[in-house]
Write a structure and sequence with these properties.
Rossmann fold, single chain, five-stranded parallel beta sheet, alpha/beta, 10 helices, 10 strands, binds guanine, three-stranded parallel beta sheet
Amino acid sequence: MNSLKLIDGKAASARVLQQVRVDVAALVLQGIQPVLAVILVGEDPASQVYVRNKILRAEEAGIHSLEYRLPADAGQAEVLDLIARLNADASVNGILLQLPLPAHIEETRALQAIAPGKDVDGFHSENVGGLSQGRRVLTPCTPSGCMQLLTDTLGDLTGKHAVVIGRSNIVGKPMAALLLQAHCSVTVVHSRSSNAQELCRQADIVVAAVGRPRMIDASWLKEGCVVIDVGINRIEENGRSRLVGDVDFDSALPIVSAITPVPGGVGPMTIAFLMKNTVTAAVQQAQAQRSLSEAPCLSTY
Ligand code: GUN
């Protein structure tokens, strides 16, 4: 395998987390301890793994975490009450409500209940709107991680044609907004597009976020394009369970100039940017509380 073409998400996420650790240490010296609250409703096995990993990474970065596990039959009011308590608790900087929620809980209502300044997922409409207007708001973690990988690989993205495959609220739509902000020409294709493959073949940058194992093969790709594979699909193959992306990696590799593997590509970046968002939220809350002269001095927030 041509490892020069591999975009190493583990190494990139380690760099982000190292910066987060440095920033947290600086904040703690100024009397600010970043705190992330994670809420898990029900026992979805994948969500349990994700939540455990988020809490572990937070502790490693020096961020305190609070874990709230509610039973699968918890009512909407119980979830909203918990969010209201965490909103009102000044010691909590970030609130993450793990998705998916059990079907009887209205996802939009629960996400909208999180105070926008503590919405470290960037899913609140205030943050979604702010992103589309180019305001400095908390931004969804997976697309932010993809942007970091793209700028690490390509530098300035100005003028590139980016095709985003998938239009979810969590990845596709915010990804398109971030690429536009970085001065790309952006095309979003989806299950109802009549010419998705043809459009994708014109792309300098392909971001695949459809949740369909190995859907994108070499026939979708232009020679020399950069591919970011957001998909994490568990499949059974040769009697073995394994994770594959939305891109057929072996088919794509000879065509692309760079590609993220699955696992070890985008996955680790999501958690790293969750930690970065938690620090950003902590800094912004401290700045709102203190006068400018006393505000914590971290240049990047
Ligand atoms: N479930 C899958 N991805 C995500 C994510 O980015 N944030 C939350 N809260 N839940 C998820």
